[in-house]
From TrEMBL:
Coiled coil: 104-131
Limits of the DUF4140 domain: 37-135
Domain annotation DUF4139: ranges: 222-528
One of the Pfam families matching this protein, by short name: DUF4139
This protein's name: Mucoidy inhibitor MuiA
Record keywords: Coiled coil
Length: 537
């Protein structure tokens, strides 16, 4: 056994020359401080900074405090020219300390308060239990033996009874309160466990291998894209009256659930959408053929990118002391940007953060419209001619008229060739009715092999206001899709008629308290043997 003890070390010593030593790159962990966010319609570019001291040679840097969902292709690391980047990679399962959220802090504070209350109740409960024990210890034989007076004994028994009842009642109340507190403590602890999970959790990190010829302190700039954020344009439309310009407020509804709080950062809103792609489409062959059971098709490909140049911004005067005073709008040739010149904060899991970007007075003309065939109400509309100068994006609108909330609408300029019409709601002071003229309307009548039927209507408009109004009335004549059916004797005095759609349009100016009537009629003829197959009448 003694020889064996020395043989083993000898073998180990003899084997050591065959082990080839190698240098392991030193790893340095650095927490990135978020400094700037460029928020797109979908997605956000996050930019942060840190500083590290690295030794000479190869070093592995682990950049932490990042968003949850990172587009690996968008990672961009900038270093001082004293160092060279060898490689960059994304680490999905870095085990980092979890930052306690505001919600978790509030839960812990509430739990501490409940635990303090429970401690105070327990102290009171101990005192009451001692009092009950003392009162129960006063036996009758001990009371009577003390002085031998039956009267005194009765008084003593009554004293013990009354105080014991009070003590037992207090004990019951304290015990009930204690049990209730324990239940609430358990509930809060469950919420804390749900919110916090484990004390440590896996996070995203970026591993950067660098090489430097000397010891250096290096500034590091990191940027990357996350899809867990974005914004939607919204608008407030405010109209004082039909003689005043329209006040249009541009807003942004911001959301982000990247898991990283945006605290006091420089903030830019961009109308770009990187997720749409940047490659221009190319047409593929357009094939025309007779289908003989084969399943190939050719078509024009659609664009996957839609970053059309938006119009130049219009100069406008902002109201003072508003958030929009700190928003600067600029155009970089491809998209619009709103630079927020205030430090801004958004929680890592939040939505419906509404920013006011700018306010602008817009010249508008006002008119009423009505389509009594579908709705008897007259609707007020604001018509904007120079909408192409407003840099509008499609978005929801909230409408206010004369200081009152009217409802919600939607603003879009897609496919628009004429005026931009913004609906401002119904006006009950204008009465519109559409009635069928029974005397003019006929039942189907037969002439040889044909059937004819006349239809007649009258639209009544009453302006009960004290001011004149402009109103556009819409109705329609049927559009004939079969040559065996004919439209005859159409009468629509004063209306513009579009044959391809059948639309009738009356442009009217109605004085205060005035009533106008718009009669129109038409006749439809069709073969008698097709009567049961006529659709639309």
């Amino acid at each position: 056994m003694m020889k064996l003890k020395y043989v083993i070390p000898s073998i180990l010593l003899c084997s050591t020359p065959f082990i080839v030593p190698y240098a392991v790159a030193e790893q340095i962990e650095a927490k990135v401080e978020l400094t700037k966010v460029t928020l797109f319609l979908k997605g956000a570019e996050l930019q942060g900074r840190t500083s590290i001291h690295v030794p000479k040679g190869e070093t592995e840097i682990l950049l932490t405090n990042l968003a949850n969902n990172i587009d690996v292709n968008s990672i961009n690391v900038g270093l001082d020219d004293k160092a060279m980047i060898l490689s960059t990679s994304l680490v999905d399962n870095y085990l980092g300390e979890k930052v306690q959220s505001d919600t978790l802090k509030s839960l812990h504070a509430a739990l501490k308060q409940l635990e303090d209350e429970e401690t105070k109740l327990n102290i009171k409960l101990i005192a009451v239990n001692e009092e009950i024990a003392l009162l129960k210890g006063n036996r009758i034989d001990a009371i009577t033996a003390s002085n031998g007076s039956l009267t005194d004994a009765k008084q003593a028994i009554s004293f013990v009874k009354d105080n014991l009842v009070n003590a037992l009642t207090e004990q019951y109340l304290l015990q009930t309160q204690t049990d209730d507190l324990k239940q609430r403590i358990v509930q809060y602890q469950s919420q804390i466990d749900l919110e916090s999970g484990s004390a440590r959790q896996t996070q995203k990190a970026i591993k950067v291998k660098i090489y430097t010829e000397h010891d250096n302190t290096l500034p590091v700039v990191l940027s990357y894209l996350t899809e867990d954020a974005g914004w939607q344009p919204t608008y407030d439309v405010r109209v004082k009256d039909i003689n005043s310009p329209l006040l249009l407020t541009y807003k942004a509804n911001v959301y982000q659930h990247s898991g990283l709080n945006w605290d006091n950062i420089d903030f830019i809103l961009s109308t770009a959408n990187p997720s749409q792609g940047i490659t221009a489409p190319e047409p593929t062959p357009w094939n025309i053929y007779v289908n003989e059971g084969k399943s190939f098709y050719g078509s024009m490909s659609k664009s996957t990118a839609d970053l059309a140049t938006m119009p130049q911004p219009v100069m406008y005067e902002l109201k003072s002391n508003t958030f929009s005073d700190y928003v600067v709008m600029n155009h970089n040739g491809l998209n619009m940007q709103f630079n927020v010149k205030l430090p801004y904060s958004i929680a890592g899991q939040s939505r419906d953060n509404v920013l006011t970007l700018k306010e602008q007075e817009v010249a508008a003309t006002y008119r009423y419209t009505a389509t009594p065939k579908l709705d008897d109400n007259a609707f007020l509309q604001a018509q904007i001619t120079d909408w192409d100068k407003l840099s509008l994006l499609p978005g929801k609108s909230t409408v206010f008229y004369a200081g009152h909330y009217i409802g919600e609408g939607y603003i879009t300029t897609q496919g628009l060739k004429d005026n931009l019409n913004i609906s401002l709601g119904r006006d009950n002071a204008i009465v519109v009715m559409r009635n069928q003229d029974i005397n003019e309307t006929s039942k189907p009548s037969f002439f040889g092999n044909d059937v004819s039927q006349k239809f007649a209507y009258t639209i009544h408009i009453r302006n009960t206001k004290d001011v004149p109004i402009d109103i556009t009335i819409y109705d329609q004549l049927p559009v004939i899709l079969n040559k065996t059916i004919t439209l005859e004797e159409a009468k629509y005095q004063g209306a513009d008629y579009k044959k391809d759609t059948g639309l009738l349009t009356w442009q009217l100016n109605i004085k205060a308290k005035e009533v106008k009537q718009l009669p129109f009629s038409f006749k439809v003829s069709y073969p008698k043997d097709k009567a049961e197959n006529i659709i639309g009448l």
